[in-house]
TrEMBL record:
A single cellular component GO annotation: cytoplasm
Organism for this UniProt entry: Allgaiera indica
Pfam families: Peptidase_M17, Peptidase_M17_N_1
Keywords for the protein's UniProt record, in alphabetical order: Aminopeptidase, Hydrolase, Manganese, Protease
PANTHER family: LEUCINE AMINOPEPTIDASE-RELATED (PTHR11963), PEPTIDASE B (PTHR11963:SF20)
Superkingdom, natural source: Bacteria
Name of the molecule in the record: Leucyl aminopeptidase
InterPro entries: Leucine_aapep/pepB, Macro_dom-like, Peptidase_M17_C, Peptidase_M17_N_1
Domain Cytosol aminopeptidase, residue spans: 309-316
Listed GO biological process terms: proteolysis
Length: 461
């Protein structure tokens, strides 16, 4: 797959973006062969519809794609990316004027349209047409963002047979080495000696040892700590999932994959900050050593947790990592996790729900998400529900009964371990259920590009 733009001095064919209502006006400015061809083929510039354009000799002169309003919304998010796989191979350029935000989204979508997860396939990648970066677009920045997204997708798409805690550690270590970052891992029984008891409890039943992964990078600037849920496969533990719910559980490390993709973007762009990445990497398995319903675990923070469902394990491993994150007084902690089905019921697979107590941070994120086409939705840290996560027998309940407000109660649980720290939590899905422009079916990053765009406002960099 190509994650690079064609050089701007390369000869390129023009691609015109024409809103359907403006087709007649556009045709008046075109050469006669183009105008006659469009009329002869009854092309109507319907949103997303593509037409190749001939010159007077019958050779290819360019192409036109229909739009339904603002040019960047060619039939939805990343709509222009539809053209990348439909156009003949070669180099193309966008010949219609675009606003800066529109041009950046169009350029990124084009690169991401070339993504294929081909690790296990004998079929060659389907080649995509190349694009020159539009004028005014920072090609290096867009290429770095695309590379981070591809890392996230590849990690999520890799099955658990090849992406267990050890393999996730290897991928994290490789990323750190690529950018000269420091790497550390605490593994197996050492988790108890270093006071990560809940990470150990969740992962101890698997022959693939649990671990806490850490990357640190940067020498100056505000400290940003990213915490990603790295449950490489989730059987549900002794509260075993049905087969229908287990089929996508290779993606339960989607939070870890997303923070690693975001970390790659930050380091590649050399942002003026200090970065710390923490990933509790485990497999939630069934064995004689598995933690049990009714067990009470003592966390790194000292809070006790009654386990009322072993399938609510993600918040347990995140809790120990969040407690560690807050010990260094970071300027901002962001956790990302494929945490609850309740979030998907609430907002579906497209939107990334997030939680924050800071209205200003929420607006900064929402604005960034709209600007870069990475849609977010704010959810409430609803304080009246705090009593739902207090079982009485312990400080906290990992799975309140009643089945209500599941995403909110999970977020409130995590907030207990980040108390006193500026904290934002994302409850993402990490999977594209059906193909869409620039987003083939499978693993997908959510929220990372919005966070990247928001960092100047969030951290004052």
């Amino acid at each position: 797959m190509s994650l690079s733009f064609a050089p701007r001095d390369t000869p390129a064919l023009p691609l015109y973006i024409v809103p359907q209502a403006e087709l007649a006006t556009w045709l008046t400015d075109q050469p006669d062969p183009v105008a006659r061809w469009i009329k002869a083929t009854a092309y109507d510039a319907a949103p997303g519809a593509l037409a190749l354009l001939p010159d007077g000799s019958g050779a290819l002169a360019g192409a036109v794609i229909g739009a339904d309003g603002p040019k960047e919304r060619v039939r939805g998010r990343f709509g222009l990316a539809r053209a990348a796989s439909q156009l003949p191979q070669g180099v193309w350029k966008i010949a219609s004027p675009l606003a800066p935000d529109e041009a950046e989204e169009a350029a990124l979508g084009w690169l991401l349209a070339s993504y294929r997860f081909a690790r296990y396939s004998r079929d060659p990648d389907a080649p995509c047409a190349l694009l020159q970066a539009p004028q005014g677009v920072d090609a290096t920045r867009v290429e770095a963002i695309a590379a981070g997204e591809v890392l996230t997708r590849d990690l999520i798409n890799t099955p658990a047979s090849d992406m267990g805690p050890q393999e996730l550690e290897a991928a994290t270590r490789a990323l750190a080495e690529d950018f000269g970052a420091a790497f550390n891992a605490v593994t197996g029984e050492d988790l108890l000696r270093h006071n990560f008891p809940m990470i150990h409890a969740v992962g101890r039943a698997s022959p693939r040892a649990p671990r806490l992964l850490e990357v640190t990078w940067g020498e100056a600037g505000p400290l940003l700590t990213l915490v990603g849920k790295g449950v490489c496969f989730d059987t549900g533990g002794l509260d075993l999932k049905p087969a229908s719910a287990m089929g996508l559980m290779k993606k339960d490390m989607g939070g870890a994959a997303t923070v690693l993709g975001l970390a790659r973007m930050i380091m590649a762009l050399a942002l003026p900050l200090r970065l710390r990445v923490l990933i509790p990497a485990v497999e939630n398995s069934v064995a004689g050593e598995a933690f049990r319903p009714g067990d009470i675990l003592t966390s790194r923070k000292g809070l006790t947790v009654e386990v009322n469902n072993t399938d609510a394990e993600g918040r347990l491993v995140l809790a120990d990592a969040l407690a560690l994150a807050c010990e260094d007084a970071p300027d901002l902690v962001v956790s990302m996790a494929t945490l609850t089905g309740a979030a998907r019921v609430a907002v579906g697979p497209d939107l990334a729900p997030f939680y924050t107590d800071d209205d200003g941070d929420a607006q900064t994120l929402l604005h960034a998400g709209r600007r870069v086409g990475d849609p977010l939705w704010r959810m409430p840290f609803w304080d009246p529900y705090e009593e739902m996560i207090e079982p009485g027998i312990a400080d906290l309940d990992n799975a309140p009964s009643g089945g209500m407000a599941g995403s909110i109660t999970a977020a409130l649980f995590l907030r207990r371990f980040a108390q006193g720290t500026r904290y934002i939590h994302f409850d993402i899905y990490g999977h594209q259920p059906k193909p869409a422009p620039a987003r083939p079916k499978g693993g997908v990053g959510q929220g990372a590009r919005a966070i990247l765009d928001a960092l100047p406002g969030l951290l004052g960099i």
